[in-house]
Structures are given as C-alpha cells and as structure tokens.
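Consider a protein example.
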Amino acid sequence: MQRSANKAVHKSLNKPLLFTNFFAGDVVAGLGPYLAIYLLSAMHWKPGDIGVVLAIGGVTTVLLQTPAGAFIDSTRFKRGLIATCGIIIGIVSITIVEFTSHKPLIYLSQVLMGGAIAFVAPSIAAITLGVTSDKNFTYQTSANQASNHAGNVFAAGLAAILALTISGQGVFWLMAVMGALMAISVAFIPGKSIDHIRARGGEHKDLEGKAQPSGFKSLLSDRRLVALAVSVFLFHFGNAAMLPLVSQKLSINSNADIAIAFTSACIIAAQFMMMLMSFLCAAKADTWGRKLIFLIGFFINPVRALLFMSTDNPYFLVAIQSLDGVANGIFGVIIILMCADLTRGTGRFNVTQGAMAALVGIGSACSNFSAEYIVQYFGYGVAFLTLGAIALIAGTFFLIFVPETKGATIPKPSAGN
C-alpha cells in the first residue's frame, strides 16, 4: 500500500522542474569559492580585496531579494524570469575570465550576478508551489533540492576535470553552459500548469475578489517569522565563509588548478550529503516536524568550524566539508516549508522568501567580508573559531525562539494591512 502511494507521488513529480533545478544548482551556488581561488592564486589579489568582491555580490542580492519576491508574487512571467537570469549569469561568467585584470569590471560582474541570483531560487520555489498540491508540495520541494544538489555534484566533478586537464578557467565557462541549459529547461514547464494565486501562497477562497495579497506589515507582526528571520541571518553569518576559507587554505601550498580540483571535491562531498538530507526531509518533515530536523542543521556548523581549525590535511578538509551538506541540505528544504507554513493564505509566500533570502545574503556578505579580514590579520584558526561561535549562537537562538510551524495557523491581518 505504502509502495503504491510512493509510486503515485513519484509519477506526480514535475520533471521539467527537476531539470531546471539540476542546472540551477551550479548557477545559484555562484562562483564564490572558485573566484576566491582564482583571484588569490592566479591574479594575486589580497584576501581583503577578495572579501570585498565576494561581498559585492551578496550585498546586491540583499538589496534585490525582497523586491524580487514582491515582483514574483505579482508576475506571471516566472518562467521567463528564470531564463533571463540564466543567460545573464552565463554572460557574466565569461566576462570574469576575459577581463579579470580590470577590477571595475569584476565588481560590475558581481553586481549583475548577485542581481540575477536574487530572482532564481524564489522563482523556482514559486513555480513549485504553483504546480503542486498541499499533498505533494513537500515531496516536490525535496526532490527539487535533491536534483539541485545532483547538478552541483555534476558541475563540481566536471570543474575538477577541466581544472586538472585543461585550465582552472574552465569552471567559468561551465557555469555559462549551465545557465543556458537552465534557461532551456524551464521552457518545458507548461505555463498553464502554474496556479499563480497558489504560487504566491494565496488561497482562492481567501483572495477571491482581492487585487492584492495581504500587506507586508501583517508578516512583520508575526513574531514567528521575525524569529525565523534572525535565525536565518545568524545561520549564514556563521556558515557562508567556511568553504571559501577552506578553498584558500588548500591553495596555500598548491597551484590554482590543484586547489580548484580539491575545492570541487569539497563541493561534491557536501552535495552528496545534501541529497541525502533532501531525502530525509521528504520522508520525515511532515512527521517529525520542521524544527527538529532544522536543529540538526544548526548545530552541525559549530562542530564543522572546530574540525576545520584542527587540520591542514586536504583530504581531511574535504571529509569535514561533507558536514556542510547536512546543514545546507536541511536548510534548503526546511526554510521553504516553514515559509509556506507561516504564510499560507496571505498571498505573501514569495515576498517572505525574498526577505529570508535577503537575510541569507546579508549573513553571507557579513561572513565573507569579516572572515577574510580576520584571516588577513589573525589567521585561519581565529577566523574559524569566530564563525563557530556565531554558528553556536544561531542554533541556540533558533532552539529557544522559533516554534514548530507545521500546522501553524496564520494571524488574520488587520484592515489597515
């Protein structure tokens, strides 16, 4: 009986959406670790300057994430938006390779890439919500994330091969190809299959006759969302800089191509774990609840930071990085489910996603910027210790202040909202 139910759910999966997520895996992840290695080893940039470059993309994403979510709530151009972003990211990736010696162009490229990335993940999540029912939303979201991680594994493996056999610059061309394939894949999702009211977290019975969804003030008044937002910021402040720092540690005693290959191995190890976590979320998020699973992700990061401090062995560093897959694999699924839980019926799913993604960007930018300067003045050990302390604070805050959201009721907005 259970097997028949699983087969039915499997058949209901939106296959073009899975392919879109596969190619988006490398695109949304960005060039951060590879760009850090390339600028440090090949172009001999200072760590502080690299931190500025990495932060620029994050800041741009921050500024656009919430407006992007609001735009996605109101537009029917969701598929075209994803395709346009894929093309922009591809062009930017090639520009980095060709004009790395021109700092203003590198800064501009990160602005454009950060802007495009701001729209991709929320658009995919909106389409997912719009083409699924309540019954299979968790399963489709988990399958999306598993496909996304598989795409990252594929791209990272190919990047390692290109770095070792041709050139480390091949990773930038690879991202351009993945962006183009993402744009092609999304075209196969039938436009008529998307329920645009449901795609913004609305319900027809609640929004019938309304021109606009409930106001943004109604979301800010929900303490659960505010606490979740703070947790998201702290999670990424303590986590985002770890992989770029590990990549730079790997490049200290090796050339850029070898470092890129090891970084690809780090990404592959993490992505395999992310796929496993996506399957765990698919199987247990509706039975165990969101909070218990998310807590695992939060408290893995302090352990990871301490382990990174303890070794310079590249093989151990790759093994430790697999723990990133536990944290981010859980985050990728559960944050979408929690946003959907807390905004159901408000019509503000995507703007809430955008706000959360903006906080991801703020946390990541703060993480990269501060960690690079800590490395420059105090060394890698102090940087990892700082990140680990922030990660511990993040987990503790989430444990205390964020409640279980499965089955949560939504506060009714006041008339002025």
Remarks:
- The chain is about 80% helix and 0% strand.
- The radius of gyration is 20 Å.
- The mean pLDDT is 80.
